[in-house]
# Entry
Amino acid sequence: MAKLIVSDLDVTDKKVLIRVDFNVPIKDGVIGDDNRIVAALPTINYVIDNGGKAILLSHLGRIKTEEDKAKLSLRPVAERLSELLKKPVTFVPATRGKELEDAINNMKDGDVLVMENTRFEDLDGKKESKNDPELGKYWASLGDLYVNDAFGTAHRAHASNVGISSNMPQAAAGFLMEKEIKFLGDAVENPRHPFVAILGGAKVSDKIGVISNLLNKADKIIVGGGMTYTFYAAKGLTVGKSLVETDKIDLAKQIMAEAGDKLVLPVDNVVATEFANDAPHKVVEGNIPDGYMALDIGPKAIEDFKKVLADAKTVVWNGPMGVFEMPNYAKGTLEIGKALGELKDATTIIGGGDSTAAAKQLGIAPQITHISTGGGASLEYLEGKELPGIAAITNK
Ligand code: AMP
# Structure
């Protein structure tokens, strides 16, 4: 369903509350990767260029103790934002109270203000994360309009997204949110065929929902990574010391029966004696021998997967094909990433931190149609679930 977008709003002279996703990696006050701040710029610029006042709310990490506050202040993020916008940004070290209210009331059109980390409210009864009704109402009272641009948090009902939305006459999506909904939505609901999903990563349990939802939508589902070996066990192959979720073997059997030849598993694997880069390792087909664990897909599997990908028109990739953090087991993930980057005339979508890291390592990110900013949120979207943060945005 089409959603109200920030560009549908008349923001002039208005106090616009914008929920952004500034949950960036940060250590000793230094930001590791400012991608998420950059991704929020179009919405912020739209509001201030059109004479609105941009009041930004975001969480950063998890606040469990008083000490976490010093490490997870949004102050450095506000400073980085000021550099990126090339204009002053007011930072308010509070999530409520007179200082915040005065700062907002003193804003002029085109000004930008960053409020302190919304999760500071979690120290007192998890008010942000549990969507405390009073908190959402209070934050909503600080602005005239509300825009949600934080796709990464859309799978959670928090005070700063669902709480504010439900206390405003309407809630609009920001441009980043709009882009995420468009690409993931089209892939799931209206893909160009052949539609291929590539699923990897450690656990079947994390991806079962995605496999089930995509079974009758995708033409092929490629499975790699640690989750493969639960399927191996379900097929009656030996798995050695590989990662297997024994309580999911029956489910894997069911999925295989339903999927038939839609499900593509690796025919060979790189197996090692230990979970270590320099452990003795070799390539084996089929059964994983005793005393070995499978840590990457093998060369035949890479070729098989590339053939499946060759004529794909829509590809969704989530999760590495092996333990790609260790160079000896990175080849499967990197080769699949490379194949994705080389596809012509295909819509390619990557979700999840590890696949995104692999795409960046390969330098193929510019060739990918859409790299989702939300790991958990993109998975839940692919599972076909309704995301509370998106549901709370007004339909057009
Ligand atoms: P996920 O967070 O579920 O996407 O899983 C990512 C993690 O899965 C990465 O840290 C990989 O090292 C790990 N992984 C991938 N393949 C394997 C494997 N064959 N055995 C153990 N761990 C794996």
